[in-house]
Specification:
This protein has about 200 residues and is of the alpha+beta class. It has two domains: about 100 residues, Aminopeptidase; about 80 residues, no CATH class. The protein is built from four helices and eight strands. Strands 1-2-3-4-5-8-6-7 form an eight-stranded mixed beta sheet. The longest helix has 15 residues. It is globular.
Length: about 200
Amino acid sequence: MPSSLPSITVRAYTPTDEKSWLRCRALSFLGSHYYNDVTPRRRVLDDPSIALVVTLPSGCGEVVVGILDVEIDVEAATIDTIATHPDYQGRGVATALLAAALPILITRDVTTLDAWTREDVAANAWYERMGFIENYRYMHVYLGDGDDASGFTTPEGLSTPVIGFMHGRIEDEGELRSRFARTYVCRQYVRPILD
């Protein structure tokens, strides 16, 4: 496969894209620290928002190979989902999606865009290349099989937790990593819309 796609078309998401959108997101997330963040339906974003896709022709129409969903809250916006199908990663898909979203955000008077990610090296490097600066960090902690569940309580009649997802303080990173097998630093990246 060539290192970049000859031409990438970015367009607005439509409801007919949902099945392909879900497949793109699931396959992209499968290779990341968000591998269990899979849903059977695309979350409907509150307005105002931006929903963009990159599609390529396939034998039965188009296939979504990149997605970007951005939620807007007055002058601030947050990337809800950005993902590239694994077969097309590193070929400019996410960069094209961001480049298409920025002018839209300007017209909506948004001044900052933020995003949250974990420890995936490629994702963190991409945000930094795109002008995002790390602003904040905290811990994502999963309680799973074999982890120390002491200290957890549940309502009467229920067992101790089998699985769980929690937020933790960055100051407790060492302790959390020693106690739970699946623990990540979650980073907030922020960039101004106008450079």
